[in-house]
Amino acid sequence: MDRRPIGVFDSGLGGLTAVRELARLMPEEDLIYFGDTGRVPYGGRSQDTITTYARQDVRFLRSFDPKAIVIACGTVSTIALDVLRRENDIPVFGVVGPAVRAAARLAKDGPVGLIGTKATIRSGAYERALARLRSELQVCSEACPLFVPLVENGRFRPGDPVIETVAAEYLAPMKGAGVDTLILGCTHYPLLRQVIGACMGPQVSLVDVGEQCAHYVAARLDRDGLRTDRAEAGSHRYFVSDSTEDFADLASVFLGEDMAGHVEKIDITQY
């Protein structure tokens, strides 16, 4: 048994998709969340810059002595997971493996769709992982660079003409290819689940990378004896590198609780 917290980080708001599921699966666990809102999005940056940012994010979380770190960021998971695992002596979890395993189970005969940031799509990480499980499956991938900034600015609700227009353009190649499974390869994208689902249709299975990662983390902590032995509800702390008010407003909508006054700002460049 281990009462230390679980650290979770993302470039911004998207990692809350993983936090919400972690809290549902393990309500007794303490969670520390960092969203690097001052430098979001990561997806258009170089591999060196992404790795530098990820190292700083991890150093900040390690100041809380966590028992595990969850990279709730598709971009960092595809670019820097191996580096972060080598450099840290606690479990470090990414979103790619769990999502790919879910997609391999769900996919039928059609190609698997993948949407993600530019860095994620360039990396080829999802394609390589899926090929190891089901080499016969083709992958239709598309970078969606406007999704993250739109989500971070609250433009993720059905009926919003901006996000619906952008989604229709990005998803047209997926519809044309006839994908039956679509990996939402960035933790921001599940916030667009209703918009994406309406565009793709009910016949397409959507894979939420944050949700799949949370289930895998819970199972691994159980297996390795790292779950807390507390019976009471765990505490959740939230940190950002830019406006606490903007983050709290959007996080309140997504988490279903008032986050005003519960978000702290830090200078991530000091780590």
Largest sheet: 6 strands, parallel
In DSSP terms (H or I, runs of 4 or more residues), the helix count works out at 12
Q: How many discrete structural domains? A: 2
Radius of gyration: 18 Å
Overall mean pLDDT stands at 96
What is the strand tally?
10
Uncertain regions spanning at least 5 consecutive residues: none
Strand order of the largest sheet: 4-3-1-2-9-10
State the helical fraction.
Answer: 40-55%
Class by alpha and beta content: alpha/beta
Describe this structure in words.
The chain is of the alpha/beta class and 271 residues long. It has two domains: 6-94 and 211-270, Rossmann fold; 96-209, 3-Layer(aba) Sandwich (Rossmann fold). 45% of the residues lie in helices and 15% in strands. It is built from twelve helices and ten strands. The chain has helices at residues 16-25, 47-62, 74-79, 81-87, 96-106, 118-123, 125-133, 147-152, 161-177, 193-200, 209-223, 244-255; strands at residues 6-10, 31-35, 68-71, 92-93, 112-116, 139-143, 181-184, 205-208, 236-240, 263-265. The strands form two sheets. Strands 4-3-1-2-9-10 form a six-stranded parallel sheet, sandwiched between helices. Helix 12 links the parallel strand 9 and strand 10 (263-265). Helix 1 packs across helix 11 and helix 9 (161-177) packs across helix 10 (193-200). The longest helix is centred in the middle third of the chain and has 17 residues, at 161-177. The radius of gyration is 18 Å and the shape is globular. The model has no long low-confidence stretch (mean pLDDT 96).
